[in-house]
Amino acid sequence: MKVAYQQIRKSKVWQNPKKRKQLEKLLTQLEALSKEEEKN
């Protein structure tokens, strides 16, 4: 997970609006999963 985060930070994905939106959606999903696990 740490490696993936570092790669994403360094990549040019953030400069592509379509890919940026997709990445933001994935990050939101990860946050939701994390919160679900905290409740259990």
Layout of SSEs?
Blueprint: H1 2-10, H2 17-39
Q: Report the C-alpha radius of gyration, rounded.
A: 12 Å
Question: Count of helices?
Answer: 2
Poorly predicted sequence stretches spanning 5 or more consecutive residues: none
Mean pLDDT level: 90
- Total number of strands: 0
Strand content: under 5%
The structural domain count equals 1
Mass-distribution shape: flat
Helix content: over 70%
Class inferred from helices and paired strands: mainly alpha
Distance between the termini: 21 Å
Order of helices and strands: HH
Major sheet characteristics? none
Describe, in plain words, how this protein is organized in 3D:
With 40 residues, the chain is mainly alpha-helical. The protein has one domain (1-38). Helix content is 80%, strand content 0%. It is flat. The two termini are 21 Å apart. The mean pLDDT is 90.
Structure described in brief:
The protein is mainly alpha-helical. 80% of the residues lie in helices and 0% in strands.
Question: Which keywords apply here?
Answer:
40 residues, flat, 2 helices
